[in-house]
Known about the structure:
The chain is mainly alpha-helical and 291 residues long. The protein is 60% helix and 9% strand. The strands form 2 sheets. The protein has a 3-stranded antiparallel β-sheet. A 3-stranded antiparallel β-sheet has the order 4-3-6. Residues 1-32, 246-270 and 276-291 have low confidence and may be disordered. Residues 240-279 are annotated as: Disordered.
Amino acid sequence: MSHRFATRVGFTFLLAAxxxxxxxxxxxxxxxxxxxxxxxxxxxxxxxxxKISPSEVAQNRARLSAEDFARWxxxxxxxxxxxxxxxxxxxxxxxxxxxxxxxxxxxxLFAAEARQHLQEYATTxxxxxxxxxxxxxxxxxxxxxxxxxxxxxxxxxxxxxxxxGSCIAIDGRNALLKEYAAAGKIEFHDAELEKLFWExxxxxxxxxxxxxxxxxxSKHFARPPWEGWGARTAEVFKRQADASGGAGDGDDESExxxxxxxxxxxxxxxxxAQADAESFLSQTCRDVVTL
Length: 291
């Protein structure tokens, strides 16, 4: 696989993940025809799970060993359920305990970083959207970092990390889930799913990596994710631009055709585009697609 293709595939996957919902929490909007199960109610909010179709079950039964099939059946249900219930519980706990910074404050921090380092990438509608998506994604993962840090300070224990930036304080999450369930704030509507849910909270495979060493945990929480984010993101954008090729990338015929197309296309006032980008970013990305 070429570096350019891998970069494009990776960024496309990241954009898809951004549009799915809050990082590590919600799945993409399903079509009206998708069968869903009302699995639980948390703080008065319904938690839905996608029903696994018979064809999907048959396909996985045919290609997986009996042990792997049983694991797939369980994990395809408890993982999304634990994720969604946990998000609602931890968000409520953070609100009730006034955990800082808030989402709005975090958005301002990322917007300030973007104004300082990403202006040159936000001079077109597509570029502005790209910056907005980056802020939206980073805001979601930063919120997880803030909650995990607060929960770890209270409950201690290991943390779980994902390659996309998610962070969970495992002991703190599980303590909250038990507290909320005991208080009647979590109600399950399927006995089997409830059993799988509690078993899932004890699974050692929480995210991609589990960090138990106290020194490594402290190091993870030492620097907030918004510090230096703008410069790091600018480097990523630059590498993506380099990987996609410049004006000289291609044969003479395609380059000549591209020049003709550009001559025929309406021009964009760069000064106006820059002003629009500044205006957009100065509004703390109010219209950002967040997770």
